[in-house]
Amino acid sequence: MPQRTMDQQVRTDAAAGAFDDWGLSTVIDENLDAPVIPRDQFERLHDLAGLDAAWPIGNAGLLHVYGYLLSTVDTPYGSKGARWLDGTLARTLGLPADAFLPDGPGIGTLLSRVTAAVLPRLAEPPVDALAVLDQQSMDGRATVRTVVVGGAHAAALLYGIAEGGRMRAVTAFPLSAAPDSFLRALAEQQPRLRYNAATSTLAPRSPLASSLRTQ
User: Which residues on neighbouring strands pair with residue 54, listed in sequence order?
Assistant: First the structure.
C-alpha cells in the first residue's frame, strides 16, 4: 500500500473510532522474539491514529492490519502481510479473494473491511464453527476467545478478547488445514495469551484459567 494511501486510511479509521473495535497487542512477535516493525514506524502509526501507546504494546488493529503490511521480517509462516494480500483468508471467510487488498473493491478502509468480517464471528461465533474456545484471565476480568471457521482443508483462526463486556478483535489468519488433531491440540494447549495479545492488565503470554467452553 502506498504510504499516502495508508496514512489516509489510518486517519479515516481514527475519525470513525474504528480502532476501539480492536484490543491490545505487542509488536514483538512471539515466534521471532523480535519486532515486526521498527519502533519509529510503531510510533508513527499510533501518532497518525491519535492513540496513546507505550512500546512495545499498541493497538492490535493498527499493528496486525497496517503494521503487517509494512513488515519486512521473515517468519516461519511467510510474510506478515500475506494474509491481507493473497486472498486465502478472505476466501475462507466467504469473501472475494480481493476483499482485503488495501485498495480492493470493498467499501471503506482495509481495517473496516477486516473488522466487519472478523468481529461479528468473535462476538457471536457461527453455529458451524469448527471450534470455539473461551478462556478467562485469572482475575476473571477478561475472556479470551478463539474461533476456528471454515473446513478441514481451508480454515481461519480468529482471536479476540472481551473486557468490560465488549469483545474486541486481536488477530485473524488463515490455516493451511484444521483437521481434528489440530482442533484437539488447540483445546488441550496450556491456557495463556497467544498471538502477541495483551490486555489492559496482562502482559503477552500471561497464563489464563482453564477453558470455559469448547465447540
Answer: 57
Pick from 33, 109, 118: nearest CA to 75 = 33
182 forms beta bridges with none
pLDDT of 163-185, one tens digit each? 999 999 999 999 988 888 888 88
CA–chain centroid gap for 167, Å, is: 12
| For range 24-38, the mean pLDDT | 95
CA atoms within 13 A on the CB side of 36: 28
Cell of 100: 482485503
- Condensed to tens digits (0 to 9), the pLDDT of residues 41-96 reads 999 999 999 999 999 999 999 999 999 999 999 887 789 999 999 999 999 999 99
Amino acid at 67: G
> How many CA atoms are closer than 13 Å to the CA of 195, on its beta-carbon side?
22
DSSP secondary structure, 141-161, as one string: SEEEEEEEEE-SSSEEEEEEE
Please choose, from the candidates 150, 198, 182, 173, the residue with its C-alpha nearest in 3D space to the C-alpha of residue 89. 173
Contacts of 103 (CB under 8 A, 6+ apart): 1, 5
The grid coordinates of residue 184 equal: 484437539
Answer yes or no: are the C-beta atoms of 168 and 162 closer than 8 Å.
Answer: yes
Q: What is the DSSP string of 58-76?
A: EEHHIIIIIIHHH-----T
pTM for the whole thing?
0.95
Which whole number is the average pLDDT over 142-150?
96
**Is residue 169 within a helix (H) or strand (E), and if so which, with residue range?**
strand 166-175
